[in-house]
Each structure stands twice: as C-alpha cells, then as structure tokens.
Amino acid sequence: PVLRTVSLTPGVMNVSTLLVQPLTSNKASFKFNFIDTRPKLVSSNPFEVYSTGGDTITAFVLNLGVLGLKASEIAVSVQLADTAAMSVTTGVAASFVQSPAPPPITKTATVSFPAPAVMCTAPDGCMATVTLRYVNGGAVSFSYKYLSTPTGAAIMAFSPSTGESSGGFAILAYLTNMKQVSAASAIKVKVAGVQLAATKVTSVISNRVQTLVTFIAPFQSSGGNKQIEVWETGREANTATAAFSYIDVNKAAILYSDPAQGDSELITFVNVGVENLGSIISSPAGLSLAITPAISGVRVTVDKIIGSKTSMTHLVLKFFPVVISTKTEVLIAIKPDRGTPLKTSTVTFTYLPAGQPRVVSFSPSSAYEVGLVEMRISVANFPSGTSPPTAGDVLVVFIMGVSNVTASFLTYKKDSGTRAAVEITAIIPQGTVGSLTPQLLVQSKSVLVSLGSTFTYNQMPKVALTSIVPSRGKIVDITAVGITLNNFPAPLAAFDIVISVNKIEARVVAFARADASLDARAVQTMIVYAEMPCCSDDIVAGKVEVWAYHRSFPRDASPPAALFEYYNPDMPSVIKVEGDTQGPSAQGNNVKMSMMTLVRLTILNVPLSVTRVDQIKATVPGVTASAALVTVPIKFLSVQTSGQADVRLQLPASQSSGVSVVTLNFPSDLTTTFEVRYYNDLQPVITSVDPTVGKWTGGSTLRISVANFPVMTSPDQATVKFGLEGASFGTIVSILKSSGLETQLIVLTPAYFGALQAGTVEVQVGVTSVQNSNKAAVNGRFSFEKLAPSLESVSISKGSSFGGDQLRINLKNFPAGTTASAVVVEFDTSFVDASQITIPLSNTDRTQVVVTTPPFDPPSTVYCRVYLRASGRGSSDRLKFSYTFIDTRLPSMQLPVPRFACIGRPSVSKTFFVLLFADLSKPANYTHPTPIVTYAPTEGTATPWTVTSYQASTGEVAATVVASNATSVAASSSGEITMLAGSKSVSFAFELRDCAQVALVSASPRKGVSLGGGDVQVRIANMPINEQLANGGITASFGSTSGQVVSAQKVVPDPTIYPDAPTNEWDVYLTITSPAIDMIGSVTVTLKTGSAQVTFEYAIVEPCDLKVFCASQQLALGGMVLNPFHLETTPPIDETCSFEYCITKDAIPFPTIQRTSVCANDKCTSKPIGVTTGGDLVTLTLLDFVAQSAADVSISVSMGQETGFCTINEYAATGWTAPPLDALSNQATLTFVMPPAPLGKGAATVVITATFGSEKRVVSFSYEYIKPIVGRAQVLLLSPSSVRTGEVTQIYVELSNFGEPPLAIQVIEPGMATMASMSVNGVSYQETRVQASTRDLTVLYFNLPSITTLGVQTASIFYTSHGVDRAGLYDITIMPEPDARIISYFPAAGLSDAPYSIQTSVNYLPLSFTAADVSAWWFKPPASAQNSTKLDVTSMVYTSRQACPYRSCSSATLVIRTPDINPEGVLGAGS
Predict the structure, then answer these.
(1) d(CA 986, CA 611)
(2) CA–CA distance, 1147 with 1220 (Å, rounded to integer)
(3) What is the 3-state secondary structure (H, E, C) of 333-351?
(4) What is the DSSP letter of 754?
(5) Which of 413, 423, 1017, 1353 has its CA 20 to 30 A from that of 459?
(6) What is the pLDDT of residue 951?
(7) In the prediction, which pLDDT does 874 show?
(8) E strands within 684-843?
(9) How much is the pLDDT for 1220?
(10) pTM, entire model
(11) Least confident of 395-409, 780-794, 843-857, 1448-1462
C-alpha cells in the first residue's frame, strides 16, 4: 500500500484502537512524534531576593495554561524548609504566547509575582521552593534563595585609599551590606559634607552581594581624613560612611633651607627645597620673592633652579651683602610667578654681623632619642688668636645646663690669625622626642653661636627579635644560640644587651654588627651570641617567650616572641611532623578533614624497650561527633640505637577544622604530644593561576584551575575577584572544564588601579559560586605589573596660539576602556576641559586621545602632559612632549634655515623659506608687504640685501623669499639676518666666511677637567678627510698629550639650500675626547691631517671633589652622596660643583627579590633549596637593585658564625633611571653559584649587597641546605610483603632517598602516574597512585599481577627514568594458592530413612567452579570406594565474589542432598 495521509484528531484518544495487525508483506509506516505536553520551567530570575519580600520573580514555563491565560488561573505557593507553604494572591501577573505553525509549536507562559516576606537569619540564606499550578491541570516547581535584608549602615572601602587634595581622580567605593541599587541615578555621594553633582558619579555596578561606585574626587583646600558618604535615595538608613585620606598638595611648604644664616659682608648661597608649588619651575624667572621686613640694602635673588617637579622644587637663593651692625632676621616669601597665596612659602634667613662666628653646616640634622651618633659641624669665623681653643674648650649645647657635650675633635681648616674655618665633631647625647636648635659655646672666649637650624630627636623604634638559631634546647643543658636583633641601640659591651627567658637573663657572650660598614654607635641590626639558661624549676619543657632590649632603654624592648623551645632529653619528644603537602599550613602539619591522612613523625628519646608498633598508642580528640578520643593505630616504626624513631600513622577524618593535639603513649606511662591542623580539603581551592603576572591595565588572559568547585554550565554562575580592598572583578570568557573535581576557567583580568601607587602589586584571587557563596576559593595569587605608560606618537608638534587645532596622542599601557573623563591633558599649567577631549580608541594595545588645543598666551614652546586622573599630578606616569604655540599673526622661519654664505664671490645669494601666516585681524585677501632683508655683522655696520624673489598668497601659506647682497664681500664675519614684513620681523644667526681655506669654524666647550674624558665638538671648513677611517685620518693633541678623535664626518652644503656653493667646499664635524693632563692652565689643541691643521686654546681646570661636595649638602633629610651612575655616564666637563652629580641617600632604594630559581642538572625549582656540596645555580630577579655591574655586588652565605661566599656567573640590569634628586629604579637578574654549606645541612642566610658609590643596599633570603641524594633508594615499608600467586595485589610502598640527584625537592606530583616502577623477576610494573612525594618521603601504590614463581623474590623499586641502578630493594614472598577447606556444615546428623539438605561453607574454592564441578560423597567407616555413596550438590553460591575476586579470599555455600533411603539401613556415623 501507499500511505497518502495521516490525521490525528485533537483530544483524548485510545491509542490501542489504532493498532491493526498487518500482513507482514503488505504494510506501510510513518514517523510519529510524541510531544511532552507537561509543564517545564525554561528559566526564572532573579535567583536571590531579600527576606523582606517585594522583589518580583519572573518565570518562563512551557505548556502551562492556554491562550488567554489569566493571573487568576495560576495558583502560586512558596515554601521554606520545615515551614508551611504560603499562597501568593496579590501582585501575580500571567501571560501566554504560542508560536505560529509549522511545528514544533511552543506554548510559553510568563508568570511573575512578588516574593513574600519570610524570616531568614541564616548567614548563607534560606532556600525556598515555589510551585506554579494551573487550575485546569499541570504544575511546575523551582527554587530561589532568600538573603537577609541588609540592616544598619553599609560597609565601605576605597581604592585608592589616599589621593591628592587637588582632586580630579577616580575613587572606587566597594560597598557591602547594601541592598542592590534599583537605578544608578539613585546613588548619591557626599564628600566632606558637600554632595557631588550627578555627573561626578561615573559608574555604578550593583548586585545583592556588593555595590561598586566610581566617582571623581573633588578638590579639598586641606589634607587629612575627609568623611565620604554613599547612599541610595529613599534608603538613607543604609548609608555607608568611611574616611578617605587626602594628601595636602595645595599649600606650598619649605622642606629645608640651608644654611639658615650668613655673614652680612659676604654673598651667601642658600639651598632651599619647596614642596607643592604645583607647577614646574624651569628658570629663576618663574619665581617671585618678597622680603619682610623691608630693610634697606637687603637684596635676594633666585640664583638657579636645581630641579623642579610639581611636588618638589630645589633652588638656590643668593643673599647679597648688606650693611648691618646687629644680628638681623629676614623672611623671604617664595611663590610661582603666577601662583596663588596657597603656593606661597617663607624662608627665614639671619644676617650675622661681619666677622661674627657662624655655623656653615651641620650633619646629621636628626637622630634617634638614644643619640650616640657623631655630629660634624662646620664653623666660619671661629675665634683663634695666639691661644686658639681646643676641642675640650668647645661645648655643643642641646639644652642649656641640661644636655651639653664636649667636642671630640676640632680641626682647623684655614686660619688668618684671629679667625679660622674649623670642623667640630661631637657625639649627640641622649634626648627626648622633638626639635630644638643646638648652640656652640666656646668657653674660653665666651662665644655662643647658634647652629641656625633645628635638630630633631626621633622616636626610637622597638627592638625586633627576628630569629634564634638553634631554636630548641635541653632543659638540663646550656644551649649556645645566635640571636638576630633589629633596631638595636649600639651597645658598648655585652653587659648592655639583655636577653630574658621566662624573666631569667641569658648570658650574653659576644655581639657583632650585621653591617660592619655602619657607624658603630648607630641603631642597627646586631647578631648576639648568648647561652640560654637551664637547670632550674623555672625552665620547663615547652615554648618560652624571649625578650630583648638595651639595658639603658628597657621601654624599647622587643615584643615577646615564642621562638625558643625547651625539651626534656629524658622524655620522648616529637621534633618533626609531616602531613598532607597540599594543605595551607606552612609548618607541614596539615591533615585532611574528609579522609584519612598519612602523617610521618620523627621522635627523639624513644625508650629502647620500644621495638614494635603495638607498644605506642596514639589518640586524637574531637574528630567525631561525640568528641571522644579516637585511637589511631601506628602503621610503621623504625627505631635507631640513638633513641630516634620514625613513625607513620594515619589520622582519621574530622568533622571540624583547626588545631588538634595528638597524644603518643609509650610504655612506663611516658607520653608526648604534637599538633596537627585539620583543613577542609573539600572546600574549593585554586590550584593554579597561569600566568601569574599581567599588566595593571587589564586584558590579560588567565587560565584559572579550581578544585572542588560546583559544576558550572555558564560563565555567569561564578565571579572572579582580584584583591580585597578596592577589589576588581575579572570577566569569565569561557569554561574549559567543570566536573566538580576540577574547574578550568579562561578569565580576562580587569584594570587594577591599586598598582598606580604601589607599582607591581600582588593581590588575592578569589573564585566564588554565585548560587552558593560558601563555595569560594580565595587562595589564588596574581601580580598586577605597573608597566609605565608610554607615548607612542603625536600627530602635530605645533599649532596656533589661538587654539582649535586637533592633536592626536597615541599612548601605550593605558587601561582598556579609558574614557575622556579619566584623562587629564595639560599644556604647561593649563588644563584642557574634558569636553575638548575624545577617546576614539582604547584597548589593551593602544589608547588614542584627541585633544582640541586651547588658546595659549604668550606663544611659546611648552610641555604637554597626559596622565590618568586617578594617578594624580604628582605621578611619575605623566607623559610629556614639547608643543609649540605659534603666534599666527607673526612670520616664523620654516626649516631648513640657511646659516652661512661664502665671501670672495661677485654676489652672495641665498634662498630663505618663510612661513607667513595671515594676520587674523585683516581681511582674508590681505597680503603681507614684500620683506626687507638686512645683514648685521657682530662687528660692523648693518647692510641691506636685495630681495630678488618673493612669492606669497593670501591666507596661512608658505612664502618664498630670495635675497642677496649687491656687491662682493671680502672679509669673513658673523652676525644676524633680519627679515621685516610690515611691522613684523623674524631674525636668525648668519655668517660670511672664506669657503676656500681650511679654517676653524667652532669648538665647544673650550674648557675641561684635568682628569680628561670630556668631549669637544669641533667644526672645520675644508679640512681634508679620509672618509674610510672613523677618525678621518685626523690627529688631535692637547699640548704634548694626544687626544682621541672619536668621530669625523664630512658634510657638503645641500645645493637645494645653497645653490651657489661650489662642490669643492665642505665642512668637517669632529668629536674629540680630551686626555688626562697633569697640570692646571691653558694648552693649545692642534688638529692635523697631512699639512692641514687648525688650533685653538683649551683651558685645563681642576675638577670639583664631587664626593666631598655632595656630602656637604643638606638638600634633604639624610644628606646627599655622589651619584656614580651619573658620574660614569656624564663625566664633568669643568670645575663646576653641580648638584646633578649628587643624589639624596633616601632616593637610593632598598632592593626586593621578585623571583627565585635554583637549578641543578637542568632541573629547576622556585624554592630556595640546594645541596650541602654547593654548586647549585641560583637566579634572582630583583627590583630596585642599584649595582651598576657585577663588581658592585657581593654575596655571602652564613650559618651561625660561619660564612661562605658565592661566585657570580652573570649580572644584567635594565631600566636605570638615576637623575639627581630622584628615585632609582632598576630590574636586575643575578645568577650565582652557591658555595658548600658552611655548617652542613640546615637553614642559611644569603645576603646580597649592592654598592652604589659610598652607599650599600642589602637584601637577603633564607636558603635551605639539604644533603644530596646519592646511592640507592631506601624502602622503609612495603605492605603486604607476602602475596599469593594467581592474584593481583595492591602494594603500599614508602621510600626515602628517592628522586632526581643531586636536587630533589618535589619528586612526583600526587596523582601523576608512570614516574616510578617496581621490578620483580625482571618484569617491571608502574605505580598506580602517588599518595605523597617530598624529598624525604615518597608513598606509592603498585598493582602487582599474578606471579607464578613461588618463594622469596626481590622487588626493586626505582625512579622510572633512572633504571634499577638506584633501586630500593625489598623481599616479597610469593605463596601458592590455598587448598579448599570446609569451614562448617549443618546439620551434622540425621535419620537414616529421611533425606537431608546439608548446608556447607567452603573456603578457597576456585572462583570458576559451579555446582556441577563439585563432587560430594558419604563414606561409611572404614572409608573406601565400596563404603561410599555419591551425594547430589544441588546449589552453590559464592558469598564474597564482589568483595574479593581471588581464591585466597573466596567463600562458597553448597547445598548437599543426602539420599532418601540409607542403602545400608544401618545407623552409624560417616564422613
């Protein structure tokens, strides 16, 4: 048949009526689709609502209801666990949509209702089940969560947490305990009582867990904490309030002024540092001075600007002589030329009468309150005469009559007979915190001189006790220890050092300074060697608190530190606990909560009678619900003759986390205890973040792996948070894997503004389940690296001073998604309004800023600066470039500009290119008049030149001017050409010269230091040159000493610029380096090649002693030192003592170690650990490492009082920026070879010292020396040690001395396979599981298959890649399969005329047997074939086949049937 149509009438139909029995050879078929018409939930939202109710929940459901569905036809009920269901009858809405034909037709109902209010106080929320039921049949249920409604004030934190008072930067407020914001516009922000405009709130992101609000910080007239309030309109009771710290950058202040006094007859130069001027001062003209009181003749100028930033300006004031008769004080008010009163600061200076003694300088200007350090004081006009004062005659008065010290040394520098320049040295006495002005008292002359400036006593820091080695000792013996004390006042003798143990003083034997280069009197780090007390009732076993302090300063004692432990040598004690290696405790005593954990113990003083595991009992409390003690069986025991034992036990799972004390009981009632830390190993944990470093601007792609995380099906089911305070949230791009055991996510990092202030910053990474916030892994780490923003390009470098030009700035390393409001653009000190800035492009690769230039007057070249508003004006990330504002009403030269013409010709003719801009005040068709050209020589009369050609048009166009002189010029000259167009002119330098002769055109500079090394730039006309040689074949001599010609270049005039220049004329440009010359004076420099030569005079001057000069300056607290980096890169060219060669001590940073790598035999680890034989290669990545070369680096390794030194293999440094008065920044890679351990196995301290000039900077890290792994592995335990042939047996193995020689830290990662092997009878088997693997212990499992050879066999266990040479050996006994054995039978007797079913239990039958394979016989004594009867085996069942698949553990139950009639008819026993 042919099937033509199939129809189905809607409605209920009995399908059985459609079934017709067809003829198999005559049938047709068709497909029929059964559609599930039961209601099915498509989706619902939101998942979380507040317990106060009212949140609207919307559900989309298939097949619920029909077209025209009404709310009254849907019954809504909500039920919490263990509570009655609640009906929702008000606020319910329903609708129904049916898709058009063709099929499949979908029918979707949309139901919404308000969540009812419930009582929910659970911290994790309460789950509710809602049921939607259609009145005519059909229902669907789904769940959502109630969260406790936030009450009281919201909690708020900020990023950044501080900012400049100038405002304008973005603040991210992170709020919790705040209801989800209904609309971004509802958020209000108030700062210091003033509400911000809505436009200043730039971003609001809110959910039920947190709310992130970004707003622009307003200007504040002062610094300090300002209250910030954030709230949602209508929810004022939920307002968040927190303090934000403003840094006052508005009001200028004097940081230092030195010297503070001067001789009225002499010029005095005063070094001044001014904070927060708010602008960069490029020249003395940028500052204005005001003098009070107005004293006749007082004159002060700004001599020079040493360095300037908006945050700090260093300058020199010049005080001219003045006629006075008494000590006179004046105030000098300094402010920027265009500054506000806020930017005014005042310097105090004292004029001393002519010849009066005065203090020129003193150092240091501050010290800790303990004093004791040396002060140096330079004095001018010191009284001398026939009996000059001695050191004992001079007092340094800190507090008159209370705190005076006698000078230690007095050195006369210059002596005129009555007055002298002297240097005085004295030891600063102990004082109290605060500032004072010391004085000098010359007792024999009754002269009292003020030091002029204040001296400050600072608070003495607390002593810090950082380590005690060794950290354990016997209660019955004195223990010699080495103790490291930081911030310790300089002791004069061992008696000054107090080490207190349980209020008992330890005997201090000796002490040493950690850095011998420091002043012996300074507060510093001390290494103290002491004997810990013993042998008294106060010294008992256990950890004790140790105190340390200087006997003269007990209030500065270190906080007590429990760093030392006493033990009783006659009692057992646990000295080492090794648990789960994956746990959080750094001490290694981790134990899993969910399962048994293998723990390895090392115990001292085990009684020699203990030889078996059952002699030690271990108990652990509180791991079960009953909190009863649980006995833990000892799994392994190995006791050495010394009484040290290695013990293994498996601690049980626990229902709670935290520290648990395990007790070990030995014979004779001896006990000891140890601590373990249970941790929740089922709690989600981040196992890896790759990579671990990325740009702070965001956009880095990470792979984050999380164990034990809820299964995810979409990225919105989890959040990834970076950081704690001011957290940023990443974007989950995709889910690579999510099985419950492991989840792998691809995440894009956000921008992290916290790195703007701190540079590279490591933050916590957390992954949290949205539906179950308890399921959060927060142990990940990621570092946001502050890659400095950089300027890629700018579209134009000049424009009209009337503004309006479009300037495109392309930037690197700006945050992706940067907006115009987040960027600040400055021209000089003028800010561009945000409305004139657009950002057409901003991604992780590039940000483009388009700026409409502002008007700028007067027209000039200025710096344009671009930076993030969040960084602040003082940020080092401000990018700058030069931009020229041109007065478009004036002509200006356009390059190339001609610079010379040749004499001795009929005419001198040159072409000039002039950019003539239309005068904006003139009509558009206005044309400038033809220019008038004049040449004015430096010596002589100005001569007009003839303009032979002029082409110009209207508007802003280039005009061409050609001019020449009318007559031949006979003499060379230099001067200036001026072009006058109407009332407007432009001038430039010009020279006329004899182009046919060899002649010196210029040489600069013509002065250099006797040390040599200065470069001189020389220009010579028509000098012959060999262009094949670098020096052109030209020699240089400075008098009789040869100099070096570094480079020589021949330059021929460009004919397009100088069309009348002959082709046989040229210039030679030379760079020559001056040699060292042992003289002071003038020498003749001769430059010669063949017969051609030129000469010029060169002054040799004595160089400034920069080391002394820098040390004498007091530009900042802590003083200044010579900057060797700048000295090497830019040697001094003359005798000038310049501040550019000095650097403040505080600007030389202390290094930090960013990464560590230790390698041996091409195996590397990030852990600082290596073998005692030395030779391991260590590579460090260091930040702020100031060494210029490997010669400036020293590396020592110390253990106790023994020290070794490392050999440096390689040193590479990049990123130097060492300008004067600015911070150094350097990333360096240092590779060195570790020496043999000074004292064998144990912890050592590696100290890396970088020398920078006279300063040293030190960083250190701890390094663990371990014994190298050599020889065979040691099998500590193999269980079971006997197996049966025919069976696959799981073997448990513990090994030591197992791994990669010589360096083995983590041998095998748990869970990895095929890394270890076991060989028996020449056949190898690979491990099936790695339970634990450290350098000292590896725990493996093997599945050993059936072995047919019986007897004792040797098993070799080895690292797969090594083979059997280093295998550990252990004997295994292979036993035969056991014989079958009847265990029991019932009944054992019966009547001879009745049948019985005898149930028989039989062990060790082959598992392949069935009842048919078993024969049963009844024997009558005497047993023989004639006296036997065969019985029936009616059934056979194995009772342990599932639990044990081997014969050795098989057990079967057989049913044996006796005959109905005893053939013998005789009573009696049988078998």
Answers:
(1) 106
(2) 9
(3) EEEECCCCHHHCEEEEEEE
(4) H
(5) 423
(6) 62
(7) 61
(8) 685-690, 693-695, 701-707, 718-722, 728-729, 731-738, 742-748, 761-769, 776-785, 790-794, 798-800, 806-812, 823-827, 830-831, 837-842
(9) 33
(10) 0.39
(11) 1448-1462
